[in-house]
Amino acid sequence: MPKVKTIQTKAERENAQCLNVWANIEYYKTLNGLEYNQLANIMHIGVTTVYGRKNNPRSLRMEEIVRLANYFKVDIAELMLTRG
Fold first, then answer.
1. Which pLDDT does position 84 carry in this prediction?
2. What pLDDT score was predicted for residue 70?
3. Exposed e or buried b for every residue in 2-19, given b needs 16+ CB within 10 A?
4. What angle do CA 12, 79, 56 make, to 5 degrees?
5. What span, in angstroms and rounded, lies between the C-alpha atoms of 35 and 32?
6. pTM metric for this prediction
């Protein structure tokens, strides 16, 4: 029997997107050999707040994402992409 795709709610899609953005931040963090304290400096927030953002990606602010995209020298859309 074929698998049935479940319908996601808007909140579930937004949650998935936020998790995806954080996964991309982690990818570029690792690629650039950064520690969380360095990430905090780039984002202009405290290290505790970085861990808070990691545990709750929905709390990421657009200006933090923009700062990271600028630091990583990628378009902001690159941080929004879903990697397969």
1. 59
2. 97
3. eeeeeeeeeeeeeeeebe
4. 45
5. 9
6. 0.82
DSSP code string of 26-71:
HHHHHHTT--HHHHHHHHTS-HHHHHHHHH-GGG--HHHHHHHHHH
Structure tokens at 83: 């990697």
**Encoding tokens for residue 6?**
């479940």
Tens-level pLDDT at each residue, the chain (84 residues)? 677 666 678 888 888 888 899 999 999 999 999 999 999 999 999 999 999 999 999 999 999 999 999 999 999 999 988 765
72 closest CA partner among 50, 37, 35, 39: 39
Q: How far apart, in whole angstroms, are the C-alpha atoms of residue 65 and residue 8?
A: 25
**Which two tokens mark 72?**
């990583």
Residues 50 and 42: beta-carbon distance below 8 Å: no
